[in-house]
Amino acid sequence: MNSVGAPLIGFGQVRHTRLRPARNAFAYPTYFLMLPMRALHQYGSGALAHNRRGLLSFFDQDHGDGGDNALTWLDALLLREGVDDAGGEVWLHTYPRVLGYTFKPVSFWYCHRADGALRAIVVEVNNTFGERHCYLLDAPRYGQELSADKVFHVSPFCTLEGSYRFRFLHIDNDGLKKTVARIDYDDKAGPLLETSVSGALEPVTPASLRKALWGYPAMTLGVMARIHWQAFRLWCKRVPLIRKPKPPKTFVTR
Prior knowledge:
3-stranded mixed sheet; 11-stranded mixed sheet; 4 helices
């Protein structure tokens, strides 16, 4: 991802596969925002409604501590974790609000140094119980497999044991920019879940926003609906339910 730029929108696909005890797989089209947060706060958001109402909009308060400036929150988080050289652009991969509603299962903060090199990735996870947790991936590289212990409850069909494997790709092929974020989950028996979101990126313009709204009506409502539909399918397949554990004591896992 370039170290500076204008807001982008990605059109692509979400894929999810559960391998056991009953196989369950799905894929569906999606779109998402890729926002240069420092430029956004300094120069404005162009065609995208930022911290104001719109058919499709982005609000800082949907992230971090719920404040009016999510970038300030992120910079403070990085400093607390000893990351003091991420003063370059921060690209946020996230879902927008659509018709005023959003649910963001996961967002990715790509944090760069002043020279444009990737310094850290913060994986911000929300569950359907209104809880939030962050995984900090220190000194990552695109294409490299990264790992973190699972400490935050997301699905009632998974325990907290095991770990995540992350892999991120940013591809620029003859001007066609594409991003891929993959998260696989392994428990003590081995690979259990395989998940990815990918998409081709284009500038946020009135035309690309219309394309998103007309092509994917009520998209963020659909995210929540699909979560519950897939949970119902797993229940019908008699996958055991797991009692919700207490949230982790710390907000950030490295």
